Amino acid sequence: MGLLSRKVTCNSHGQDSSYFLGWQEYEKNPYDEVKNPKGIIQMGLAENQLCFDLLESWLAKNPDAVSFKREEQSIFKELALFQDYHGLPAFKKALVDFMAEIRGNKVSFDTDHLVLTAGATSANETLMFCLAEKGDAILLPTPYYPGFDRDLKWRTGAEIVPIQCSSSNGFQITESALEAAYQEAQRKNLRVKGVLVTNPSNPLGTTMSRNELDLLVNFVTDKEIHLISDEIYSGTVFSSPAFVSIMEVLKDRKLENTQVWERVHVVYSLSKDLGLPGFRVGAIYSNDPIVVAAATKMSSFGLVSSQTQYLLSAMLSDKKFTKEYISKNHKRLQKRQNKLVSGLEKAGISCLESNAGLFCWVDMRHLLSSNTFEAEMELWKRIVYDVKLNISPGSSCHCTEPGWFRVCFANMSEDTLKLAMQRLKSFVSSISIDNQTHQDLKNMRKKNRTKWVFRLSFQSFHDREQGER
Ligand SMILES: Cc1ncc(COP(=O)(O)O)c(C=O)c1O
User: Fold this and answer.
1) Each residue of 33-45: pLDDT tens digit?
2) Is residue 452 part of a domain?
3) What is its EC number (predicted)?
């Protein structure tokens, strides 16, 4: 141990968060319709599996792209030897055009500002290496994606200071919350280097309003700090209000080529919009040439393979395909989100109104035994071990109010989602029955004045479930 680096033993990675623990529990007992119908259903993974048929049908129609060929001639050697760290020009062009298309072509992107990375994970960390180090802080609105503890803090040594948002205004960012976070960082002797937001938000599944975006631009202008907009979910916006990229705000406010313009950076990836997290394709888009140059050098630690770039440049340059894909993806996500929301409603559970993402931000405060994070963990454990659904507790997203959970809907079949909702519904009614029993027994005790012990056990739900099967 003594010979290992401090990174190896420090716990700022966040791996022990319930977000990752839930995945581990799922891995031990994964649901399978045939092989393991009583297993845990994975609802803690923001994957988009709704459009694989479209991707696969494109692949079938484009054999050259898949088999390292151009006009039927092999380009295997060319791809195998390709060593330009800046990426294939054709791929970078196709990617910036796709980013613009997702934004309704209201803004355009220049390949000279783009740095390819191995997913948004690498993009966020690389940007942090460019902007911050030990003793520096980045402000992040809560609730936030649990992976940020790893991506922004672990290897860079920088700190996250939360911007505390609350359910009272749908978790929107306010001027006072921004200012309070800034003051809090200063109180901790940390130098604030910037604000990072995810738009659309993970875990809220909402797009940021113009008002919030304006507020952010004003704030970073005033404090002379950076703004990182992680727009990894920009292609998942399925209903109004429409998605507004931070680049669009800068353009509309005629802030191009100003100082603040150079301090705004966008993170993107094909993991969510195209559903390709295994391909590891991400990007940093920055208006600061120094950041672009440094990030390009750093990107040699996490490059995108040339065959991936070749395949995707062909796919994303096919405008007929991208148009159809974007539109069908929106429709399918909308339909699936509706299914989750109505399934939850039937179980007496509501969620934050959302218009984007691969998840809903679900309000289970009424199911807590007390308004505490201990009670949230207690409920989460019951949902994972007894109900057999892996969802992510709000505390793993640093939410300040107990009782919120992130529930994913696009990484499973419609039938699996239906089953998950049935399991949840019977769990909620079992709690109501338990509460009713509790009330009846209380009344009885009042009447008979006898001593008794009430037991609201995990087992009672489990027994009832077994009986029903
Ligand atoms: C907001 C956000 N940023 C970054 C990532 C990492 O994505 P990637 O698979 O591209 O590394 C995720 C993945 O869930 C995310 O939700």
Assistant:
1) 999 999 999 999 9
2) no
3) 4.4.1.14
